[in-house]
Amino acid sequence: MASDGSPLRDRLEAIRAAGLTAFAAAVDENDLESARVRYLGRSGEVSAAMASLASAAADERPLAGRLANEVKRELENAFENRVAELKAEGEPPGLRPDLSLPGRRTWIGGNHPVTQVIDEICEIFGELGFSRAVGPEIETDWYNFTALNIPLDHPAADMHDTFYLNDGVLLRTHTSPVQARVLMGSEPPIRILAPGLCYRRDPFDASHAPAFEQVEGLAVDEGIDFVEFRAAIDFFVRRFFGAGVRTRFRASYFPFTEPSAEVDVSCFLCDSSGCSACKGTGWIEIMGSGMVDPAVFEAVGLDAERYTGYAFGMGPARIAMLRYRIPDIRLLYEADTAFLEQFV
Ligand code: DAH
């Protein structure tokens, strides 16, 4: 660019500057065409400069030749760009690109908040030796009910509560049938978590969804007692909700556990002072649980005298709603990327 005493290269630089200015200044097609003829035409300035290469000094020629090509290409590009610009300016405003718009970000995506909660639960129990297990969403009534000591005339097995596909085949209403599948497919010691979708004939409203996730837990071995069970749940609660959060076991009933307990945690939103999430009680229920009922061991053919264990089931969507203060469960299941993006 800087002059080093070569008249031809100085001339090319001057043509470049003048040509670029002329193209940019052209206000219509005629203007632009005459600038093109002047700089890029057959007998235009670039051609004339190129013609004089022949008479340039031999050591000057390669540098000047390269520059001439560069200037020519740059002017051709500038000309094409200006043609496009003038064309766009001539179009109705709606068709013109609005250069003031912010750029489009590429959607990268991320794990759904419920998946994040499931992964975290699995990670924490993973430290206690639990691995992941999966079972089918289409189940038989034997695994879903009978093996779990739920008689088929129990209200939970009713047509009104459950999606039946065929006689005896249904969409599982909980992840507990995975307990029976794992117990039949492997020898204790067993420590598994089974996250997955469940289905119930519930309305789709602020607190119910007909398809929802559960995370099932099961530990079976010789000599597992209630103390180990409490310790495992306590460990999970403190790791998941925070070191200061307390656990409370409330006597309950499930056909497949004896004794059964509902597990509550001290409200981590209001520090137990009473808020809408804990309904003023200071406690939030997070899971159903209990010691595996011997009837389940008998149903799957395990020695109920030899083995004991504990089981639990929780709803990660509810936990995600509490944690992120999501007021309506439907938000989690409507594919609204603006909503979901907040959790990426
Ligand atoms: N399956 C139960 C339900 O869907 C939840 C549950 C309760 C699972 C107690 C368990 C348990 O493993 O021990 O309501």
Short description:
The chain has 344 residues and is α+β, with helices and mostly antiparallel strands.
Shape: elongated
Distance between the termini: 49 Å
CATH architecture field of the largest domain: 2-Layer Sandwich
- Supply the CATH class of the largest domain: Alpha Beta
**Which stretches are low in confidence, meaning pLDDT under 50 for 5 or more residues running?**
none
In CATH terms, the superfamily of the largest domain is Bira Bifunctional Protein, Domain 2
| Category from helices, strands and their pairing | alpha+beta
- For the record, the count of structural domains works out to 2
Helix content: 25-40%
Description:
It is a single chain. The protein is of the alpha+beta class and 344 residues long. The protein contains twelve helices and ten strands. Helices cover 39% and strands 19% of the residues. The strands form two sheets. It has a seven-stranded mixed sheet, sandwiched between helices. A three-stranded antiparallel sheet has the order 2-4-3. Strand 7 and strand 8 form a beta hairpin. It is elongated, with a radius of gyration of 37 Å. The structure holds 3,4-dihydroxyphenylalanine. 3,4-dihydroxyphenylalanine binds next to strand 9 and strand 10.
SSE topology sketch:
Layout (H helix, E strand, L loop, with lengths): L6 H19 L3 H12 L4 H7 L9 H30 L22 H14 L4 E2 L5 E3 H4 L19 E3 L2 E3 L5 H9 L4 E10 L11 E11 L4 H16 L5 E8 L2 E10 L16 E10 L1 H7 L7 E7 L1 H9 L5 H4 L3 H4 L4
Parallel strand pairs: 1-5
Antiparallel strand pairs: 2-4, 3-4, 5-6, 6-10, 7-8, 8-9, 9-10
Bound molecules: 3,4-dihydroxyphenylalanine.
3,4-dihydroxyphenylalanine binds next to strand 9 and strand 10.
